[in-house]
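HUMAN: Now follow C-alpha cell order:
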Amino acid sequence: MATTSATTFSIGSTVSFGSRGNPLPQSKPFVARFTSPNSLASFSGLKAATYVNCESESSFFSKESSAALRGSFVPKAQKANQKSQNGLQPVASYKVAILGAAGGIGQPLALLIKMSPLVSALNLYDIANVKGVAADLSHCNTPSQVQDFTGASELGNCLKGVNVVVIPAGVTTLDVVRANTFVAQKKNLKLIDVDVPVVGGHAGITILPLLSKTKPSVNFTNEEVEQLTVRIQNAGTEVVEAKAGAGSATLSMAYAAARFVESSLRALDGDGDVYECSFVQSDLTDLPFFASRIKLGRKGIEALIPSDLSGLSEYEEKALEALKPELRASIEKGIAFVQKQPVTA
C-alpha cells in the first residue's frame, strides 16, 4: 500500500481523534507465528538468509497480526523472481523517521525498527552524533536502508516522503509491556498470550492496570492486585535503583516504542485488528485526555474502547477516582506549556 502523508506521533500518544466506537474485541499480543513448513524468502529477527523457516514466535510485538503477516508476507516471499539482489524482500515499503535517534532510547529503537519487515527505509535525525549511529546500524543485514540527518538544516530532507515520524517521548505503551510481563511472571502464563489494559496517565498513581480485564482471565487475590499495581506504577524507579542512579529505563522504553510503531505501520497497511493503549484526547471520563485502549486505522484513531472502563473491580473504581486530580493537574500543566510556545509558520 502506498501512502501520501506521514503519520506523526510521540510514542504512546496520537494526535488525531476518532469517534467513540462500540465495544470491540479484546486486543491480543502479536507474534509472527507461521505454521511449519513455511519457507520465506526474507529475514527473521536478527538472522538474515535467502530462505528462513519461521516455525516459532519470532516477533516482539502483538499476536493479532499473525494472520495479516501470513497473508502478506508469505505470498511475497514465495515469489522468487521478485526477490531483491541480496535475496531479501520487505513485506511493505514504508519509510520511517526517528527524531532523536542518537539518544539512549533512540538507538535501540532504531535497531528494533530496522528489524521490522514492514520498513524499507529508516531516516535517523538528531542534533549531533547521529552519523555514527546510522553507520553502525547500516551494517545489520536487514532490508531497510538507513540514512542520517544532523541539525535543523537537514530536518526537512529527513521528513521527505516518510510515512511515520517517531518522536520517542511519552511512552504509555511501556506500562502495558510491564503489566503483561509482571502478570505472566506472577501467574506462570505464556507471555505472548497475556494482555492487561492500562489506563490513566504515565506517572505514579495515574498508571492504573486493569487487572480484572486481563486476558486470559486470571484470578488475583486482593494482595496480588495491590502488589502488582504498585510494582507496575513504580517500575521506572525499580530500573533507576537497579542502575544505581546511572540512568533510567531505555531498552524497555525502546521496545515499547517499537511495538507502537509496528502497530501504526500495520494499521497503515490496512490491518483492521490493531489495538493499543495510548494517552489521547478522550471522552471516556471527565478528563480531556486519558490513556485507554484504542483501535488504530489508516487515519489514526478509529475508536476508543469504552467497554474497558465498565465492570471494574471495587479496587479499580477507587483507584480511578483517586488518580483523576493528579492527572488533571498534569494535563493543565501540559496545556499551559503548549500555549506558551511560539507558533512557527
Q: What stands out?
A: The chain has two domains: 7-167, 173-331. DSSP finds nine helices and 16 strands in the chain. Residues 314-340 form the longest helix (27 residues). Residues 173-331 form a domain with the L-2-Hydroxyisocaproate Dehydrogenase; Chain A, domain 2 fold (CATH 3.90.110.10).
